[in-house]
Design goal:
There is one protein chain. This protein is mostly helical. It folds into 2 domains: about 45 residues, Arc Repressor Mutant, subunit A; about 130 residues, Tetracycline Repressor, domain 2. The protein contains 10 helices and no strands. The longest helix is centred in the middle third of the chain and has 27 residues. The protein is elongated.
Length: about 210
């Protein structure tokens, strides 16, 4: 008899926004479209809530009701790409998705995150600038943390998987990666190599748990 098929991994999926009434949904989409154009033209750091409200043709109060604050608006702009990234590590092709050893999947996850930051780094940093702890309490971080914890457990790591997951994920924070790229002059390939070395250092061998 062969081994039983592994149970599917259940993660806190990033859900699509559900603003409610048709007019609210239109406002939501209009605001995101306007914000996206402003960010593409000037960069996330240069875009203010006043500018977005003006470009979207809505009151500033409407903007805050939909997104809470500026970091909430920046996070909403990232949601579509975040969902695609999450779908990739849940059900996409190996090594990012299922089918590869846990350590290889963890390396692939970090590499994908570095590519994500390369494209959306300024927007990610803007989204990370909420109240202390907001980023860590967000459902996106919860999904990433659950994934990394599951991979560490599958790899046979016998330490505190939650603590290590937090440490690993916080080496992939947008602000840190952009500092390494822009201020320290590290290339993306160098960062990917260092990430792989870090994973292999904490998981020197892999003995998948039954």
């Amino acid at each position: 008899m062969g081994d039983a098929a592994p149970k599917p991994l259940l993660l806190p999926m990033l859900e699509s926004a559900r603003p409610g009434r048709a007019d609210a949904a239109r406002n939501h989409a209009t605001i995101l479209a306007a914000a996206g154009k402003l960010v593409a033209a000037a960069g996330a750091d240069a875009v203010t809530m006043d500018q977005v409200a003006c470009a979207a043709g809505v009151g500033k109060g409407t903007l805050f009701r939909h997104f809470g604050d500026r970091s909430g608006l920046m996070r909403a702009l990232l949601d579509e790409r975040e969902r695609a990234l999450q779908d990739g590590f849940i059900r996409g092709p190996a090594p990012l998705g299922p089918g590869a050893p846990a350590r290889e999947r963890l390396v692939a996850f970090g590499e994908q995150m570095l590519e994500h930051i390369e494209i959306q780094g300024d927007l990610l940093v803007a989204a990370e600038r909420g109240a202390p702890g907001d980023r860590l309490r967000h459902q996106v971080y919860a999904a990433y943390r659950s994934h990394v914890v599951a991979l560490l457990e599958e790899s046979g790591y016998d330490g505190d998987v939650g603590y290590l997951a937090d440490v690993l994920l916080n080496s992939l924070v947008g602000e840190l990666v952009l500092f390494q790229r822009r201020d320290l002059g590290m290339s993306q390939e160098q960062l990917k190599y260092c990430w792989g070395e870090l994973v292999r250092a904490v998981l020197p061998c892999e003995s998948t748990r039954s």
